[in-house]
Amino acid sequence: MMISTGKLVLILLIVLFEGSLVTSKKGYSSEQPSEKGDGYSSKETSEKADDSSKKSSGKVPYDYSANIECIKEPEKPLYGGGIISAADSSGKKCPIKNSVLKVELKKDHHYALSVWLKFSKGTGDITAIIVTPDGKFNTAGAIVAQSGCWTLLKGGATSFAEGKGDLFFQSNSTAEIMAESIALQGFSFEEWNAHRDEVVAKERKKKVKITVECGGKPLPDAELSVEWVAKGFPLGNAMTKEILDMPEYEEWFTKRFKWATMENEMKWYSTEYNEGQEGFEVADKMLALAEKHNISVRGHNVFWDDQSHQMPWVSKLSVDKLKVAVAKHLKSVVSRYAGKVIHWDVVNENLHFSFFEDKLGKDASGEIFKEVAKLDSKPILFMNEFNTIEQPCDLAPLPTKYLAKLRQIQSYPGNEDLKYGIGLESHFDKPNIPYMRGSLDTLAAAKVPIWLTEVDVTKGPKQVEFLEEVMREGFGHPGVKGIVMWAAWHAKGCYVMCLTDNNFKNLPQGDVVDKLLDEWRKVPEKPKTDSKGVFEAELFHGEYQVTVKHESLKEPIVQTVDLDSKSEAAIKA
C-alpha cells in the first residue's frame, strides 16, 4: 500500500488538534481514553488467570517474534493480517487511493499492530495512529524507516469501545510511505492475560523434585515447609541514603527486595560535586548494608548525558580537560565498586541527551563502555533510557533508534564481546500495554537481557491499577530478565511514586507490590513427600529454605536448596 504524505496533511492537523502529542517532563504522552471506563481489570488478571488460560486454549496465540533487520522484501503478515483484509494487508502492488484503513474494533480488546514500512526515497520517522470508536487518537508505534529496504513496526493500542475505527500512518518526510503485510490482531483482556500466564509458566517456573532421606532411606509422608529466600526473577527497588539511619526503613526494604539501585548516591554529582573533592562514604555504606542483607546492587550510573545534570565545573571544562575529568571519574567509581555490582548503567539517557557526544565526539558512549569493561568485566553493561516503551509519541528513544545506538556502541573497536543489557526506565503515565509488548518484542530480538530499571506510575486515580498492569506485562514477557522500581522513600516525598507512608505502613501501591511478590514466590500449601520420599511441584525459580518435619525426627531438618539453576535437590538427615 502506497500512502502519499500529502494526503495526510489534514489528518495530521486533526491529530495535533486532538492533542495526540502532549509534552511532559519525560518527553511526550500519547492520548488515551478518559478515566471513565479506561482501566484494565487487575482483579481479572489475578483471579481469572486459570480460567482465562483455558478460554484462550483455542484462541490465537500471541506472536512475540520480531525481525529487526531492514530487508529487501517484507515478510508475510502476522496472524494472516488479523482483522485487516488480505487486499489491505498486502497492498504495495496495488496502491489504494484512501490513506485511512477502516477497521471494526471490539470493546475491551488489546490490538497488536505489525506492519512493514519503507519510504519511496530518503529516511525518516513513520508513526502509526489508531483511532478507536470513542474518537480517541492512539499512537500505536513509530519507527525509523528508509528507502531501499523494509523495516518492521510492532506496537498497538487498546479499544475500550465497540465500532468503527481507523488506522493510518504519518511522517516527517515528504516521501511516499509504503506499507506492506499490515496486521491488526485483537485479543480480549482475558486472552491477553492468558498469554502472560503461558510465558510465566514457561519462563519463570519449572517442575522441581525434592528427595528427602533419613539414614540413607527415603522419608515418606514427611511434612514440608517451603519458603522462597533468594534468586529467581529479580524484582527490586531504588533506595536512598535515609535507609542508613532508619532501622524501620531498612527492615521494610530488606524483607521484600533482594535487588536494589541507589537512587542518586553513586552518581557523579553525588561523589564529586566540587572539582577534586571526591566522597564515596554514603555509597560505600549503602553498599555495605546491601551486602549484609544479600542484596544485589545495580551500579547507577557512570555518566549521565543530560547537560542539566552536569556540575557547573564540568560544564565549563575545555574538551581536553573534560577528557581528563571523565577518565578520572570513570576510574574512581568503577574501580571502587568493581566486582560489587551486578550491572553498570554506563551512559544514562544518551538517546535524549548528548552532552558527552557533543563535547568528546560521536563515539563517546562506545569509548566509555570499553573503558568500563576494562576495569570491571563481570557486570552487564547497560544503556538506560526513558520513553522507549512508555511513550510512542516520543521519537527520540524509539526501539529502532535504541537498537541503532546499541549497535553503534557494540561496533566500536574492542566492544564486540562485551556483556550488554537493555535498560528501560519505564516511567509510565497511562500505559499503552499493546505498544509496550510490541516494543519489548522488537528489543528482545537483539538477544541481550532486558531490564525494566526504574518502574513507576504517575499519581492519579488509576495509579495502582496501571502499576499492576505494567509489572505483570514486564514479568509476563519472555525478553524481560528483571524489574527494579523507582519508588525510593523520602521523608519529604518520593520522586513520583511511594510504596509506604512515613511510618513505613504500606500505601495501596505498596500493597499491590506485596501481592505480586507473594504471587510470584507462591508455593504449594501443606506439601508432603510421597511414599518414595519425594516431593514434586511447579515452583518459581529461586532458592528455597525447606523445613522437614516427621515423627521419626528428633528435630526438624532445615536446609536451603537451589531451585534456580537446578531442578532437583536432596535433603538428607
UniProtKB/TrEMBL annotation:
- What residues does the GH10 domain cover? 223-516
> Which keywords fit this entry according to its UniProt record?
Carbohydrate metabolism, Hydrolase, Polysaccharide degradation, Signal
GO process annotations (BP):
polysaccharide catabolic process
Give the signal sequence positions: 1-24
**GO molecular function terms attached to this record:** endo-1,4-beta-xylanase activity
Pfam family, any one = Glyco_hydro_10
Q: Where is this region: Disordered?
A: 26-59
Q: Which InterPro entries match?
A: GH, GH10, GH10_dom
Q: Where is the composition biased (Basic and acidic residues)?
A: 44-54
What are the transmembrane regions? none
Q: Would you identify the family this protein belongs to, as annotated? A: Belongs to the glycosyl hydrolase 10 (cellulase F) family.
Protein name as catalogued: GH10 domain-containing protein
Q: Which organism is it from?
A: Miscanthus lutarioriparius
Taxonomic path: Eukaryota, Viridiplantae, Streptophyta, Embryophyta, Tracheophyta
